[in-house]
């Protein structure tokens, strides 16, 4: 399959494209904003899709903002956005734990906003008083004992990750009945000026290697996140969903895995040359555009919308 450049399609082909989906699942970083700086035309594109009757949902692996942070940022682009439209690994894990009637404490390697999401959903977090207060290997002895109240360990992006936190997670995970979850599994996290920083993949791998445990992954491009989306948004025909993303390995792979149509945009992580170098069918998008913001202009010019 060769990806189609949406900007060069004829009016009749744009009409067919627009009629081929009912729901848009849109990534946020690199599609709607870059480090929360707006990308031109995206607000207009979201407005035009909404006007056409498309359902809009937003998916993000970013645990730095949390549900409230994503909601506040999205509200500037789309005034009808609801919290329930936002899909994150955290929300998918919460849904999984609620369904399992999980009632023990959770130990989280993750951000403060992620922890808030779990607390707001009614879960109790494990005591973290030792997490930042130990500065000698001897002092570790003080808390190497397990805490049986903890029943789950969740590992996502943690700016304040420490050896101490990894030790505590390891101790909890020695019990086979302790659930082990991973959110985003990115190898790289991009900061200002596109500087690549080590992502959660590396500390998840450390925990896997030392404990022999494999986490249930809920970030893109996991099947668990697809299951959550399909169930929560009653998606019966995945081919009527358009996934918009800026990352081939995360978004496009995720969309294809779930049977969605895919639109790759070059306003974030992946570039045109990366798409040209794709060797695998399961990473090749159906469509591409320089920016999601360009779609509003295309709809205006080609369909007089
Ligand atoms: Mg992205």
UniProtKB/TrEMBL annotation:
GO terms for molecular function: metal ion binding; phosphatase activity. Mg(2+) binds at residues 27, 29, 246. The active site is at 27 (proton donor), 29 (proton donor). Keywords: Hydrolase, Magnesium, Metal-binding. GO terms for cellular component: cytoplasm. Substrate binds at residues 60-62, 220. Belongs to the HAD-like hydrolase superfamily. This is 4-nitrophenylphosphatase. It comes from Pyrocoelia pectoralis.
């Amino acid at each position: 399959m060769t990806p189609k450049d949406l900007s060069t399609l004829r009016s009749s082909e744009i009409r067919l494209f627009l009629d081929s989906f009912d729901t848009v699942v849109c990534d946020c970083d690199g599609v709607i904003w870059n480090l929360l700086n707006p990308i031109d035309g995206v607000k207009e594109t979201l407005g035009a899709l909404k006007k056409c009757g498309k359902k809009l949902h937003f998916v993000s692996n970013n645990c730095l903002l949390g549900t409230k942070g994503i909601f506040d940022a999205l509200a500037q682009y789309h005034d009808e956005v609801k919290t329930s439209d936002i899909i994150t690994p955290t929300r998918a894990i919460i849904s999984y734990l609620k369904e399992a009637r999980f009632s023990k404490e959770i130990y989280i390697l993750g951000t403060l906003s992620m922890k808030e999401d779990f607390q707001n959903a009614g879960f109790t977090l494990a005591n973290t008083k030792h997490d930042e207060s130990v500065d000698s290997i001897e002092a570790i002895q003080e808390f190497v004992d397990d805490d049986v109240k903890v029943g789950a360990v969740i590992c996502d992006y943690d700016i304040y990750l420490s050896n101490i936190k990894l030790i505590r997670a390891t101790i909890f995970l020695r019990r086979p009945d302790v659930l082990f979850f991973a959110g985003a599994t990115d190898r790289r996290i991009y900061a200002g000026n596109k500087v690549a920083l080590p992502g959660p993949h590396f500390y998840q791998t450390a925990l896997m290697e030392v404990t022999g445990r494999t986490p249930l992954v809920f970030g893109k491009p996991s099947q668990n996140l697809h299951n959550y989306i399909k169930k929560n948004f009653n998606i019966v025909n995945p081919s009527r969903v358009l996934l918009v993303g800026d990352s081939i390995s995360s978004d496009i792979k995720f969309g294809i895995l779930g049977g969605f149509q895919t639109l790759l945009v070059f306003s974030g992580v992946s570039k045109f040359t990366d798409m040209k170098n794709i060797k695998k069918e399961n990473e090749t998008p159906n469509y591409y555009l320089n920016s999601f913001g360009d779609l509003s202009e295309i709809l205006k010019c080609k369909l007089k919308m």
